[in-house]
Amino acid sequence: MTAQDHGTTDSASTSRAAQLTGDQKVIFRSAPVLRTAISLSVLLVASSLFGWYMLDASIRAKFTGLQIATLAFFVLFMVGMMLSIGLSTIVADARGLTVRNTVSTKFHPWSEVEGVTFGSGDAWPYLVLRPSADHPEGNNRMMLGIQRVEGDAAVERVRRLRDLVRLHAPATAE
After folding, report:
1. What whole-number distance in Å separates Cα of residue 48 and Cα of residue 50?
2. Backbone phi, then psi, for 104, in 5-degree steps?
């Protein structure tokens, strides 16, 4: 069972504090950011093509293949970056959290997870990881799959994620 968390309420998202078992997963993705990334990508490609074809043919003919390839590379790079931010996700399942931010994906088993923070001035929440040999003071990892721009829906998604952490992550020994 998969519950896509795009601001809709379904049977899986109604029981916010349900323990995940088997192949159940909850996916958090920022729909407004994805829509913005797609819209801006289309606008960038369209305006680049418009600008290219608005140049006089004699001017376009002066561009070398390498210059055209360089221009195309920068446009495609920007499109790729925008889409990679828009496609950032957080996937919670019975084993742990998978955080995909832009081009990096990292799996964190529940035993590594200490909590989730989302300060009033933060644009996105942070995953708080337990201290380890590599990071004796712990570590924070930003999670772009939930964005402050979503308003109350972002706060609710963070609450839901915190509930999942409380249910699955082992308690800290104090």
Report:
1. 5
2. -110, 140
* Half-sphere exposure for 72 (CA within 13 Å, toward CB): 7
> Side-chain half-sphere of 117: how many Cα atoms within 13 Å?
12
Q: How far, in whole angstroms, is CA 90 from its chain's centroid?
A: 7
pTM of the model: 0.78
Looking at the structure, give the CATH architecture of the domain made up of residues 2-10+22-30+89-168: Roll (2.30)
Q: Write out pLDDT tens, residues 26-82.
A: 999 999 999 999 999 999 999 999 999 999 999 999 999 999 999 999 999 999 999
The domain locations on the chain are 2-10+22-30+89-168, 35-84
Q: What pLDDT, on the 0 to 100 scale, is given for residue 172?
A: 62
Amino acid at 119: G
Degrees to nearest 5, angle at CA 15 with 151 and 24: 100
pLDDT band at 5 (very low <50, low <70, confident <90, very high): very low
Question: Closest by alpha carbon to 33, among 150, 142, 121, 120?
Answer: 150
Strand bridging mode 126-129 / 113-117: antiparallel
